[in-house]
Every structure is written in structure tokens, then in C-alpha cells.
Design the sequence.
């Protein structure tokens, strides 16, 4: 076999073209990795707060919290069920919340307005969602006009930041007293206010948007679902929280995935052609060298392998470069509309080992495909004629 | 034979490479066109949005409703020619559960006055106006669901629970490309009468047609001022601003696409520059001979640049030739049919095509500047001595 050092040196010698071709590959890998990372970030943000022992109850037929409504009396009926977990004091582990979307002026957007999700939460919300922590300021006092805002929505809208205030509606100002975090989940793009305040402000005194129920154990899910859904009086539907979150992130994440992969595929055709050109030129220039190698006794297969390796090395260099630059995106926050709630949610790029490995392999495959035909041509170089310079 | 022509003919020297380069440029041009068309398709709704329509909705939130009688007040505002109202119904077709389409409960008798781009055959229009359970559906959605005029259909409501029965009375097409042809309109009265007393007589938003688009801002403020002291305040926006605020939420995606379309240009530049550089390297001896024959460095540079120019034109033209049928007949038609609610018009715009062509040529020239400069700088004697 021809030593790999031969290929590495050949690449270095044609520095300019090597860099140009590798950069092309790097850009492809970058775009591919970036869109997969974003799509995975969307899924993670939307679904990570879903727990297997929590069920969400919505009005039948409504596919999102925003469109749903559950009557007060029904909330008590659901909470009284035996599958529901209880806290040490014997109270059911349920939260009934009101979800609304308000129009708010964006900061730095020249008067542009956008939608912010407001969640009216009951007192026990921090017990119910232990992953949520107030990181700055303090929790809002129940029964007041105080609110806490998610870390990812703070500072993006007028008045939505610590110690500032904004109006939920006319003559209903609220004070921001705290900032909360939840490991980057979509809750961080919401504003949490007192349940009663939000109810009053939006005429939802008669009930809540959704009810979340923590079950005694995850295997009670089916029993609970059947019991609630079979009660014709209630007209309610039960989803495991994870399923609900997955469903509501589907559209957005599929959109990003589809767009990203389509672009990456087209890009890769361009970059493969780039590699093809580079390798063909390389073969043509090195006819004498190849002839000499053949005369020294290296087989056609050895030449073929060697050139394929060279092309793969070129692609791998590009791939690594592309993945590294995609990793740098980990620091970028990406805010876009979630199709399910019509409000903006801030996502981040989520690099997983699978995505990074896949992107590098994709780059390598691109290199091998791009290098194949030139390698075949190299292998077929007739030694004597080539050495003579014909 | 002049120099540019000679250079152009030189591209046939290494046919394989020329073909590959042209293909490479063509693919990047195709990608560029595709991305720009996605971006343009988002904006087409804004650009083509009617300037003479104003939407008025609840100031606090789009999910809250206005009293129906607000429409009468809006009609009194000077400059408003006609007004209608609508309520988002959020219907689902039972056989196409995953399909997203807009279902609006509207005041039927005024809808077609305000949305005068909806083209409906006169007899169907009359039938729809008279039938309380009638549906006026866009031709795209009707085709997808296999609805024909006269069909009895069911929709289930996500916001208004239950199964709702309708008759398809009329099918519309659009006289303007920004109009979504997959909306389903039905009578607001039908919805209203089915609701409990407490939820009746409320509407999602009011749309008015105004007499002079230039006065749009003034009329918007006039409408909002009318309701300022009432219980429920309103927010009026021109249709264009409304679409713009929707786009604002996607601005990060559009920004990313903008960056990607610049990236593709860089790739194109790299491919072209690389090819030209390789050609120059191979031909060094030839250039030496030309110099020896008395051609000036400027001649040599022109030589290289003209070759790049030819490649740019060929690649750009091929890219356009592939992209047009691919997008306008293939992908575009499919997207309009399946994602019409988001992209009612997905076609390559002439501006985009021209930009792509110009960019291909400019990039070819930019990519060849360095090789051209290197070739012209060669000393004759070195060039002649160069081997391989």
C-alpha cells in the first residue's frame, strides 16, 4: 500500500486548491450540522420538560393548550381520581393553568410587535415542576399582580425584565419580580403570573386552559386516560405530557429539518463537483508520478485506494472544520415562531454526538464519491506511456 | 479572431473539467434560486398584501374577541367603504387530520365586498349566500379533499367542539397571488346560533376596505381612537403590517436563509476560482509562448478573465434552465398545493433569476482575479521553462 504520507504531502503541495476544495466541503458539513442541531434543539426545548408520569388534560378536539378549556368543576373531578399522586399533606398533585397570548412591543424592533405567552399558574407550581428555579429576584407572591419571566424572554419585549412592569391589558399592570430558568425548556420563553390575576384579566373565571396531573406512577397513565376519556360528561382528552410536547414541536422541527437537509443535499452536489474537479486535476498533473509508482510495483488497486484516501482526507479536513464551526453555534440563541402556539420561542443549537459524527461521515462519503472517478482514472494510467510524458 | 473569443473557445480544451465546472455552477445557481425563492415566498404575502384593507382586533391578544356591534361602529368611520368580520374556527377535516387550513366563520353578505379578489361564479355565490350551512372553499383545498359543489361535508372544530355539517356551495379562485386558496369560509350566523347565550355575538376580528390606501395610517388611528374609551380596546393594522408582524416571528429563519444564500455564493466562487487556477497552472507554458510572441500581460489577463466569464454564463444559464421547470412546475406547485396556507405563491421571480445570473458571472470574474493576476505576472522565460 502507498503510505498515507504521500497523499498528505500531495495535498499540502497543492495548498491553494486543497484549501478551496476543503472549504467547500466544510460549508456543506456546517450547514448540515447546523440545521440538524437546530432541529434537535427545538425538540429538546419543547419536549424536555415532559415527564412520563404527568398527563395533560385538554378539552376534546383541541390540539393545543391555547384552544382548550376545562371547567372548574371538572378540574376537581379529575383531581379526585385515585390514579393521581398526592403530596405529603394529602392534596392532589395537579395544576390547572390558564394560557393566553398577548401582543407586546419588541425591544429594538422599531415598534414591531409580537406575541408573548402568558401562563396563569397556581401556588403549587414550583412543587409540581421541581426543575423550575427562580434564579434572580424572587417568586411572585400568590394573589398579587406580580409575575416572573422566563430567562429566554427577558429583555426581548418592552417592560419584560426584572424590576420592570408591563400591562397584561389596559389598566392591568404587572410587576416583574423574578427571572426563572428550566434547563432551557420552552417555559423559559413564557411569562408566569398569578392564576387568579390572569383569569380575571382575560375573562376566564369559569375555568382553566389545561390541567396537568401527576400520576402515582407512570403505568397508571392508561387507566387514567381511559377513565377520563370515557366519561361523556367531561368531554376531555388526556395525553401523556411527553406525547403532547412532541406533537406540538413536530411542525416547527420538521420545517427546520426539511429546509436544512434540502439545502445540504444541494450544497453537497456542488461540493462533490468541486472535489471531482480538484482530484481530476490532481491526477492529470501527477501522471508521471503515478506511472512511476506503477513501475515500482504498486498495483492498480493500491493506486485506486491511495487516491480515494486522498480525497477522503480532503473531505475529512473539510468535515472537521465544518463541524467545529457548527459547534461554535452552541452560543447562539435562535428565536422563531412555534407553529403550535403562534408565539415566539427561543431555541438553541443542540449538538449531539450522533449529529456531529453523522455530519463528518457525510463529509467523508462526499469525498469518496467525489474522488472515485478520478481515482479510477489514476488507476488506469499506463505506466510506460505516462513516464515518457505521453 | 479576437482575444475574448479565443479564450471562450479555450474552454473546450479540457472538456470534462468544463462540463464539471458548468455543472457545479449550475447546481449552486439552482440552490441559490431555491433559497431566494423560499425567502421571496415568505415576503410575497407582504408585498402583494392589499394596501386598502385594515384588520381590527382585540388590543390585548389575538385570542380574545370583539363584540359584533364594533363592526357597525367601524363602518361609520370616515374612509371605510365596507367592513366584515371573521372568527377563527380551527376546523379539521376528519379524513385529513394532519392538514392545516384556515376555517373562518364570516359575515357572508359583506365578505366578498371586502375580499374582492375572491373569484366566485355568480350562481355559486348566490347559492352560498342563501345557504346558512354553506361553505365557500378555495379551489386548492377543495381539490385536496375531493370536494365538489353540492357535497355534504363534516368538519370537526378544535375551538368549537363537535362535528359541524356543511354543504359545499361555492369554490373560489383568486385574482391575486397573495391570496390563500385553501381557506374555508362559512356563515358566522350558523356558528353563533349554535353557541350558548354567554358566548354569542362575538367576533375574532373586523376587516375593512378603505377608499384611499394613502390614508391607511390615519384611518387605523381613527378606528382605534373610537374604541379607546370603551371596555375593549382595539388594535388596527393594515393587512401589510399584519403580515409583516407574522414575518417578524420568522425573522431568525429568514436571516439564517440569507446567510446560507451568501454561503452558497462563496462555494460557487471557490469552485470557479479553483478551476480557473488549475487551468492557468496547466497552461503556463502556453502563456509563456504567447508572451514570447508579443502578447502583453494585459492580453494574458483578459484571456483568463474571458474564460471565466464564459464559464459563469454557461453555468448560470444551465442553472436557470434546470431551476425553472424544477421550481415552477415541480417543487413550487407541490408546495403551493400542500403548504398553501404558508406559501400561497412559490415561484421564481424574474428579479431573483436576474440576480442569480449576474452573480454567477460576477463571481466567475472575482474568482479568476488572482489566477489572472498570477498569469499576467509570469516572466516569459520562467513560464517557458516550467515543466508539468
Sequence:
Amino acid at each position: 500500500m502507498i503510505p498515507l504520507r504521500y497523499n498528505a504531502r500531495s495535498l499540502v503541495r497543492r495548498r491553494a486548491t486543497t484549501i478551496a476544495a476543503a472549504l467547500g466541503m466544510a460549508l456543506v458539513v456546517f450547514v448540515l450540522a447546523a440545521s440538524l442541531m437546530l432541529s434537535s434543539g427545538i425538540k429538546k426545548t419543547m419536549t424536555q420538560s415532559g415527564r412520563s408520569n404527568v398527563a395533560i388534560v385538554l378539552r376534546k378536539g383541541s390540539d393545543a393548550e391555547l384552544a382548550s378549556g376545562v371547567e372548574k368543576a371538572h378540574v376537581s373531578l379529575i383531581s379526585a381520581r385515585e390514579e393521581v399522586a398526592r403530596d405529603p399533606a394529602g392534596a392532589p398533585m395537579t395544576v390547572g393553568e390558564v394560557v393566553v397570548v398577548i401582543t407586546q412591543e419588541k425591544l429594538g424592533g422599531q415598534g414591531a410587535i409580537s406575541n408573548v405567552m402568558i401562563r396563569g399558574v397556581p401556588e403549587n407550581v414550583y412543587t409540581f415542576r421541581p426543575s423550575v428555579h427562580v434564579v434572580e429576584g424572587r417568586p411572585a407572591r400568590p394573589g398579587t399582580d406580580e409575575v416572573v419571566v422566563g430567562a429566554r424572554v427577558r429583555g426581548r419585549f418592552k417592560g419584560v425584565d426584572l424590576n420592570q412592569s408591563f400591562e397584561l391589558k389596559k389598566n392591568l399592570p404587572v410587576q416583574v419580580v423574578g427571572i426563572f430558568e428550566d434547563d432551557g425548556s420552552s417555559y423559559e420563553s413564557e411569562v408566569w403570573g398569578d392564576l387568579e390575576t390572569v383569569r380575571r384579566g382575560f375573562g376566564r373565571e369559569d375555568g382553566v386552559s389545561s390541567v396537568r396531573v401527576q400520576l402515582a406512577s407512570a403505568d397508571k397513565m392508561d387507566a387514567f386516560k381511559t377513565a377520563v376519556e370515557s366519561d361523556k360528561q367531561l368531554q376531555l382528552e388526556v395525553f401523556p405530557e411527553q406525547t403532547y410536547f412532541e406533537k406540538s414541536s413536530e411542525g416547527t422541527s420538521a420545517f427546520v429539518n426539511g429546509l436544512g437537509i434540502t439545502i445540504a443535499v444541494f450544497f453537497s452536489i456542488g461540493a462533490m463537483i468541486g472535489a471531482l474537479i480538484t482530484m481530476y486535476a490532481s491526477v492529470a498533473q501527477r501522471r508521471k508520478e503515478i506511472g512511476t509508482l506503477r513501475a515500482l510495483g504498486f498495483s492498480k488497486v493500491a493506486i485506486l485506494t491511495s487516491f480515494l484516501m486522498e480525497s477522503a482526507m480532503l473531505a475529512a479536513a473539510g468535515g472537521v472544520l465544518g463541524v467545529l464551526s457548527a459547534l461554535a453555534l452552541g452560543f447562539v440563541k435562535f428565536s422563531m415562531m412555534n407553529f403550535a402556539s403562534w408565539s415566539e420561542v427561543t431555541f438553541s443549537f443542540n449538538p449531539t454526538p450522533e449529529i456531529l459524527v453523522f455530519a463528518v461521515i457525510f463529509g467523508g462519503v462526499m469525498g469518496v464519491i467525489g474522488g472515485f472517478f478520478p481515482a479510477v482514472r489514476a488507476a488506469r494510467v499506463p505506466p510506460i506511456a505516462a513516464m515518457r510524458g505521453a | 479572431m479576437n482575444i475574448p473569443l479565443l479564450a471562450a473557445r479555450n474552454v473546450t480544451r479540457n472538456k470534462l473539467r468544463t462540463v464539471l465546472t458548468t455543472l457545479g455552477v449550475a447546481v449552486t445557481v439552482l440552490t441559490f434560486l431555491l433559497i431566494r425563492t423560499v425567502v421571496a415566498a415568505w415576503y410575497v404575502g407582504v408585498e402583494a398584501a392589499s394596501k386598502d384593507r385594515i384588520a381590527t382586533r382585540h388590543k390585548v391578544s389575538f385570542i380574545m374577541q370583539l363584540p359584533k356591534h364594533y363592526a357597525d361602529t367601524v363602518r361609520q368611520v370616515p374612509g371605510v367603504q365596507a367592513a366584515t368580520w371573521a372568527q377563527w374556527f380551527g376546523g379539521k377535516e376528519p379524513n385529513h387530520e394532519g392538514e392545516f387550513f384556515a376555517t373562518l366563520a364570516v359575515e357572508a353578505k359583506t365578505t366578498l365586498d371586502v375580499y374582492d379578489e375572491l373569484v366566485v361564479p355568480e350562481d355559486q355565490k348566490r347559492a352560498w349566500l342563501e345557504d346558512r350551512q354553506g361553505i365557500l372553499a378555495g379551489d386548492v383545498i377543495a381539490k385536496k379533499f375531493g370536494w365538489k359543489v353540492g357535497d355534504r361535508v363534516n368538519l370537526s372544530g378544535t375551538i368549537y367542539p363537535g362535528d359541524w355539517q356543511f354543504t359545499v356551495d361555492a369554490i373560489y379562485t383568486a385574482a391575486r397571488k397573495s391570496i390563500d386558496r385553501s381557506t374555508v369560509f362559512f356563515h358566522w350566523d350558523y356558528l353563533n346560533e349554535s353557541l350558548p347565550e354567554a358566548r354569542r355575538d362575538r367576533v375574532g376580528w373586523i376587516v375593512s376596505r378603505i377608499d384611499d390606501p394613502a390614508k391607511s395610517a390615519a384611518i387605523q388611528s381613527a378606528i382605534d381612537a373610537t374604541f379607546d374609551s370603551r371596555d375593549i380596546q382595539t388594535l388596527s393594522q393594515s393587512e401589510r403590517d399584519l403580515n409583516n408582524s407574522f414575518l417578524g416571528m420568522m425573522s431568525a429563519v429568514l436571516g439564517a436563509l440569507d446567510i446560507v444564500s451568501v454561503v452558497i455564493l462563496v462555494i460557487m466562487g471557490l469552485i470557479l476560482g479553483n478551476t480557473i487556477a488549475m487551468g492557468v497552472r496547466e497552461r503556463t507554458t502556453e502563456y509563456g509562448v504567447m508572451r514570447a510572441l508579443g502578447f502583453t500581460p494585459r492580453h494574458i489577463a483578459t484571456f483568463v478573465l474571458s474564460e471565466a466569464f464564459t464559464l459563469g454564463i454557461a453555468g448560470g444559464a444551465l442553472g436557470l434552465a434546470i431551476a425553472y421547470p424544477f421550481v415552477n412546475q415541480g417543487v413550487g406547485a407541490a408546495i403551493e398545493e400542500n403548504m398553501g396556507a404558508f406559501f400561497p405563491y412559490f415561484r421564481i421571480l424574474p428579479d431573483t433569476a436576474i440576480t442569480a445570473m449576474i452573480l454567477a458571472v460576477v463571481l466567475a470574474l472575482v474568482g479568476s482575479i488572482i489566477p489572472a493576476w498570477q498569469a499576467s505576472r509570469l516572466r516569459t522565460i520562467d513560464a517557458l521553462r516550467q515543466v508539468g
